């Protein structure tokens, strides 16, 4: 229940409780708190039993922890690690990187070949090293003074 509270925090809480409630009232406060926690647990368990009885016999093995999405998926996949093995085996990172490297090196050699005079249009690729041509005065659309 208190898995995330360390020993230093527990000592701090005890010291604060003694200072706030005093050594005389502290045992009564602890009894009241434990009684309240016990009643909350009993209420929770009775609510779970009521829900199980209302769901019927087909949900007799229903666990409320299954409502957590991660738990539900793990239970449905039966320990398949969410299909990660299939994803890992589906591609080879080294092979992918080698293909990308080859493609980049291949394009650099074609770009240098096109700058030496080889036609870039024959390979079906656009030369990205050239700047686009600026449109001339004649390429502008006609200005319509009445439309503005």
From TrEMBL:
Residues 101-148 are annotated as: Disordered. The gene is tatB. Residues 127-148 have a biased composition (Basic and acidic residues). It comes from Streptomyces fodineus. Its main location: membrane. GO terms for biological process: protein transport by the Tat complex. It is a single-pass membrane protein. The lineage of its organism: Bacteria, Bacillati, Actinomycetota, Actinomycetes, Kitasatosporales. This is Sec-independent protein translocase protein TatB. Belongs to the TatB family. One of its GO terms (cellular component) is TAT protein transport complex. It is found in: Cell membrane; Membrane.
